[in-house]
Structure formats: C-alpha cells, structure tokens
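dumping these here so i dont lose them again. two proteins, back to back, each one seq then structure tokens. dont judge the mess
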Amino acid sequence: MKDPLLEFSDKGIYCPKADVYLDPWRPVDKAIISHAHADHSRWGHKKYIAHEHSVPIMQHRLGDIEVAAKKWGESFSINGVRFSLHPAGHIVGSSQIKASYKGETWVFSGDYKLHHDHYTTPFEPQKCDVFITECTFGIPAFRWPDQEQVMEQIRNWWQQNAANGVTSVLFGYSLGKAQRLSYHLNDAIAPLLLHPVIYAHNEVVHSVKPLPMHQKLDQGVDPKAHRGALIIAPPNTQDAQWLKKWEPYKTAAASGWMATRGARRRRGYDTGFVLSDHGDFNELNTAVRASEAESVICTHGYTEIYSKYLNSKGIRATTADTPFEEEPNES
C-alpha cells in the first residue's frame, strides 16, 4: 500500500500525516493510548490522549503525566487526520482507535473482546478500510464458555472450600480481571478479600465505574476470623510468603489460558477457570467481518496462523511485529 495512513515503526504504530503514535513502546512526543495496561500505556511520552475512563488509571500507574481525556466517539483532528475512540470491551476505558484521512479509514483494535461482561463498556464494531487486530487467542482451540457458567463454577469451588475450612485464593490480573471478578462475586458466601495491589486498582476504577468495594487484605486481617475466605490476588503473588498464614488453602487462576490443561499444570494451580478479557477465535472472526475491512493486519498472538486462516477465507491479511505481550493471567 502506497503511503499508508498508519505504519509500524521502531517506536510504535505511527501516523506520519498527524505525527502521532498509537500505543508506542518507546518514548515519543504524542501518543494515543488504547487502554491502560502496561504493554500499551508506557511511561515516558510527552503528551498522552486516551479515553476519559483510562485517564485516572494511567495516572495511577504512570504518575504525573500530561494526558487529554476523550469521550466515546468524540472526534478530534491532528494535522488534518480525524481520530476517535470507540469501545473495545477489553477493560474499563479500553478503546479502538479510528483514524480517517481523505476518505480512508484505519482502525487499531488495541485489545478487545466481544462477549459482554456486564461491567466493561461493550465492543462496538467500526467499519474501515484496514483493521489492525490482536489475535492473542487466534486459533480454533480457544472458544469461551458462558460467563455466568464460569462464575457459578467459581462460587461452587469457593463454597466447597469454605465448607471444608479451606481458604480459596483466586489469581487474576490486577487491572481488568480483578475488577470483573470483584463485580460478579459480590454475592459473597464467605468473606471476600482483595490483595492491596488489587484493592488500589479497584479504588481507582471505582472512581469512573462503580464497583463493590470489598475488604482490603492487610496485615490486620486475622485468618482465624475469616475462615473460608476468597482472596483475589495478582498472579505474581502465587509464591508469596503471606500465603502461608492462610493455610490450608487452594489456588485457582481465572484466564483464557486455562482452556488448555497444560497451562494449568505448568503454573501449579489446583484448578483453573476459563475467563478471558480477550476475544476467542469466533469473536475475532466476528470482529473482522463486522469491520468490512479490505485488509487486515494481525498483531500480537497467533499472528501467522490467524493471518493464514483469514487469507484462506478470502480476506487479505498480513502480520506485523509489536512488543505487546499478554501475561498468562492478564488474558
């Protein structure tokens, strides 16, 4: 394509006509950010643009940054290129970034899911000429069960553990998964406790999207007074020393990767629940079709496999390398 509206550079996805980057991975002067996860929203840019719900989360994570807040669908122009942000359904504030210039439209999906989790603003498909899509779960093996079914599985596991005097420790990414679990497990059958990192994230997210504010797990919480509790904790605390005071306990992870039994064995959890903040294989296909794009660029995930699949279906698809990476339990 001659003089593409967006191109992949060593700093990020770049719009030469507007001299602005989308989710850049190296410091730049101006960045439009799809969402507040660390691999998409990085420290060091001079100016940021993001959806208004992402702004306080980015400030919590990045500190004192200069950031302009935009509403869904609000159009803004940079050097004649029209940009707008549209719901991606991934986490609170997550956006697809639409760029239009002289009748040509590109959409960068960021990360997204189509199934409505009843907390995050649901995905809204955008028609475009070129669709840049993630494909974290871009193979047919990944097909998600119904969310309510998964939440019921978690409640049953928690209830069984509580009946046996066992603490339940559920690991989920601190931004996205943890809020979703906090919201849907509000009908507590026993105490529900939040790791301090997750509690801090919930406080920030609550300021833009109300959440049940469960009890913070701090040093003053007595395990003997919280028998059968459910603790929601970040995955990187799986081997933390504080867990020993809660023995006996059982562990589980909430992640799309739990759809593969091997992933559960490798991570050493007692069990796993299939719950992802990304689209499964069918959702990716639905999003691509809904975009009506003439060309699709596949980034981060099963890029080669998914692009070959799209080409086999008559959709022109290529791949592009990016450093966007999903931690095992972010997804």
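---- next one ----
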Amino acid sequence: MTPATDIAAAVAAGTTRAADIIAATLDRIDRLNPVLNAFTAVLGDRARARAEAIDRAVAAGDNPGPLAGVPFAVKNLIDIQGLSTLAGSKINRDHPPASADAPLVQRLEAAGAILVGALNMGEYAYDFTGENAHDGPSRNPHDTARMSGGSSGGSGSAVGGALVPLALGSDTNGSIRVPASFCGIFGLKPTYGRLTRAGSFPFVSSLDHLGPFARTVTDLAVAYDAMQGYDPADPVCVDRPAEPVAQLLDTGIGGLRVAIAGGYFQAGASEQALTALNTVAEALDVSETVTIPEAQRARSAAYVITTTEGAALHLERLRARPNDFDADVRDRLIAGSLVPAAAVTQAQKFRRWYQQEMLRLFERVDAVLAPATPCVAPLIGQKNFVLNGKEMPVRPNIGVYTQPISFIGLPVVVVPVPTDVGLPIGVQIIAPPWREDIALRLARALEADGVARSPAPNLEA
C-alpha cells in the first residue's frame, strides 16, 4: 500500500484524485474484508462525498492538509456520527447513533484524511486476542488462521492487511501494542493524557489511551501530530502545547541513551521475541541491560485496577443483561466486582511508588527496549500457550510485557520485526512521559536501516 504521506502529496499536487484513492480503498475493503473481518461498518457514501470535497479544494488552490485524501478507519468504540458506538458489544447495539464524530476523528479529517469505516474489536476492550463473540474474530493478515491481537484487532488487521494506511485504536493494557506486534505494523500508545479520549466508550478511565496505527513511522507521526491538542471534554487531557514530532524524525539519534529491559521482560519470551529484541538492540548499538523494578507486581496491580474499574463501569449492564456479554468478559468483570477495596487501595499506592521508580530510571536512560508480546500470533481459538515453562491461558497473558508500562501511562512505539517463522513480532520502544519524539526517532532509525518494517500481507497474489 502507498504510504499515507505519499498519498497526501499526490492529492495535494493534483496528480492523484482523492476520489480515485477512495474508490480503490473501498474496492479493496469489499474484496478482502470478508477474509479479514476487520470492519463492522463501511462508510462508502460519506467517504466518497468527502473525497469529492477535497478534490474541489485542491482545484480551487486551497491547502487540503497534510493527510489529504488519506483513508483511515477507527475502532468501533470511537464515536462516528450516525453510527451506534458498539465497543465490540451486543448491548451497545441498542444505543442511539452518535450525534457527532469524536474529536480525534474531527482532527484527522481537518488534516484532510477521509474516514471509511468502523473496526472490529474485543468486547468492551477487555481482550488481547481480537476474537469477538458477536462479530466474529478479526484475522491476522499474514496468516488468517491466526489472531490479530486485541482489543484493537480490527485496527491491526485493517492496517496490516493494507486495507487502509491509518487506523485508530485504544490501549488500556496493551490493546494497540499487541495488534501492532501480531499484525506487523507500527503502533503508538502516547503518554496518558496526551490525546483526547472524548467521544470514545471507556474501559478503565485511569488507564485508557487512544492512538494510531500505520505501516510507516512517518505516517504514524503525521497522524499523531494532527491529533494533538488540549480538549477540556476529556478531564485527563493535559493542557500543554502540541509538540509536533514528524519534523524531528530524521534529526538523528546520536546521544540518546538506550537500554534493554532484562529480567521480567525476557523471562518466558519465545525465541522469536528475544531474537527480535536483540536485533533491534544491535541495530541501535545497545548493550546495557536494566531491571525495571517490581514489574510483576506492577502487572498484578494493573489487573486489580483494570478489573475493578471495569466492573464498576459495567455493573448495571451485568445485572440487567448478563447473557448478552461474551462469557469470558462477563466472568472477568464479575470477578472484579468481588475484589476487596483494600486490594484496590494497595494497588493504587503501589502505582504511585512504581511511577516514581520509573522516573528515576529515566534519569539514567532515554528509552528502554522490551518485547511487545511473548510470542508471534497464536491460532484463533487457541486457549493456552507456554509462558515461563508453564501452559498458561492465552487471553489474559498475551499482555504480560505491555501491562506494566500502561499502568503508569508511558509513551511507547511498537516496531514490527520479521521472524524466521514467517510472522512478524513487535518490540516496544518505551520513553519518558511526553517524549513520544524519542520513541519515534528511534523507530524511524530502525525503519531506515531496514530492521523494522511492515511486511506485505499474505492475502492475495
């Protein structure tokens, strides 16, 4: 697929019509979505009308924006005017249509991008697999018998399958980073509070982030820049100036201090995950290994906060319509409602301590490398895999390396690395708060060296 920024340049120059880009995109979705099951709604009429408007603006000599004519799609927990915001659930299908697009959709369209649809996801975002009990699983574009990852599985599948060059997802415990790893694309989980979440259906407010997926680092950065900006409608969105990063991508990485996360972040990792991590480290000339303190406890505390906040959000739905939930999601939420308050208090106290410890670590280094997932994508329907020498359930444990990072809202870019088994796997580049630029510059250096890249999907000859 042509990168988003190349599409925008051609549309702005008048050498390509946005209408033709959208026609080709809708045709590809029509042919391949039955295979991938990435979309739950396709907005053909809206997209065509928007493309015609952009072409008229170009003909009139107006600036169509840095993403002119670029198709994008959003996880179906993000509001789209005229559609019910499903959040992957059966229950939300009874909700009235959204009266307006979410702010991030508005900002991308203000930059010239064109929304083409809503994307499949795990129910209420409580999922790492991409398997939806109501809409069916979104599928991995490199092997359709395998998981796309979750909960932003449709986003990973759509971008990894080159149906669209850009997509939005959400990340609470790893729901951008896991699909990016499995589907072989770049994903950005920004600093908590950086991008507004207004107009999205929540899961765990104290952990939820929204962020982009793309097939190139430049596309990821340009989309991120277009979405930056304070929004008082989201109470955690921080009022600080936008800090554009796209212009910094090729300024070099000399002087950056990078380390490898050891201990917990390598225990249990598959051969492919460790090889990818070492490949990235070697390309960046990194040899120092650091220990992230109490990472296992951080994951446990993240689970306590996730399940209790999620249970509180869904309590009335659990009481009124228990049989309309995915059984796995329902049971995990019910369990969360039974966690004693003392455990939640302890988890929150630990969270504050852990955040301070990580900030101290970032006084010594500028970024940390870690696996994004412990393995390449499992098979759809696979219930268990081997982790730390034990057979463990897939669904709760795919995020073993992402949860301790979401827990304190650090910015992370996942870079895709090919493996010897024909499936990609991701490596996390973890940066200090508000330093998305560091993670993106390192990702761009790896992409320029050919170490990190989005492989072509295995969908058609």
